[in-house]
Amino acid sequence: MPIPHPVPAARPTLAESADRHRLYECAVQNPRSEVDFIDRTYRQLRGRSARWLREDFCGTAAVCCEWVRRRKTNRALGVDLDPVVLDWGRCHNLAALPASQRARVQLLEQDVATAASRPLDLVLAMNFSYWLLAGRAALRAYFAQVRAALAPDGVFLLDAYGGYDAYRRIIEERPVDDPELGRFAYQWEQALYDPISGRLVCYIHFNFADGSRLERAFTYDWRLWSLPEIRELLTEAGFSRVLVYWQGWDPDGRPDGHFQPVATGEPDAGWIAYLSAEP
Question: What pLDDT score was predicted for residue 251?
């Protein structure tokens, strides 16, 4: 009687073996460019370099880690409610730092609305993370908490996006090449927008060369806040000056990645802007 041979186990697909946090950092974040911007902006506003930074909704704390790489005097505090993503950041991003830099980063599993810290030079709320706060009272209270956490010459930096495509159900895809992960596709889906409540539901998907797909790797249930609303709420929370930084264009008509303070913007299909708020 022939001896049956074991059936080899199927190899996992690229989607099954993918690390969604690593994919996100590769496709969405650019901590080096972001820290370039916040470092330069603080010096322009205050005439000196910042030292103490708090990254709210910090996720994997990639920006915190980049911050302490810049100068030996820099210190970073990351705040997030998700213990899973904080643990990922500790294991992958903090663990990759030399001990001297790692000692200057602290990650806290706390609500940003109540997080306490020493007086700070900079507080960040990037990647539209504060849009999780869907009501005016909640967002104003968060902004007031940030103002209270800042040193007298501190600066709050945040970002926003908009344009007429922001109100549509759309799917956008672009290829990503990474030395470690290879080539894959990042897909951004705006699945729902309610013009009455301002509710916006978005997903991030990833597609791979073997035909597999990581569906809804990330889900965002947000309020789509407009720049006038954000500026008004910052002022109501006690900030004395709010500036909007708009992106320029290269000779081919594409965004050039350079942001400058402006008084008016362009009614583009899609735009990303930074804001600075000073006590």
Answer: 73
Q: Which two tokens stand for residue 188?
A: 């951004």
What is the C-alpha separation between 189 and 107, in angstroms, rounded? 30
* Distance (Å) of CA 235 to CA 44, 88, 130, 238: 21, 36, 16, 5
Q: What is the mean pLDDT of the chain?
A: 94
Q: Please, which pLDDT band fits residue 253 given cuts at 50, 70 and 90?
A: low
> Rounded to the nearest 10 degrees, how much is the dihedral formed by the CA atoms of 257, 260, 266, 272?
50
Q: Give residues with Cβ within 8 angstroms of 158, minimum separation 6.
A: 124, 125, 126, 130, 230, 274, 275, 277
H/E stretch holding 212 reads: none
List alpha helices for 28-168, DSSP H.
31-46, 62-70, 83-89, 99-102, 136-149
pLDDT tens string 165-191: 999 999 999 999 998 888 999 999 999
Cut 0.90: pTM above it: yes
- Cβ atoms of 219 and 205 closer than 8 Å: no
Contact between 81 and 109 (Cβ < 8 Å): yes
95/65 Cα distance (integer angstroms): 10
pLDDT of residue 116: 82
Residue reference for tokens 């495509």: 165
Is residue 172 classed exposed, middle or buried when 0-12, 13-18 and 19+ CB atoms within 10 A define those classes?
exposed
Question: Partners of 141 in the beta sheet?
Answer: none
Buried b (16+ CB within 10 A) or exposed e, 35-62: bebbbebbeebbeeebbbbbbbbbbbbb
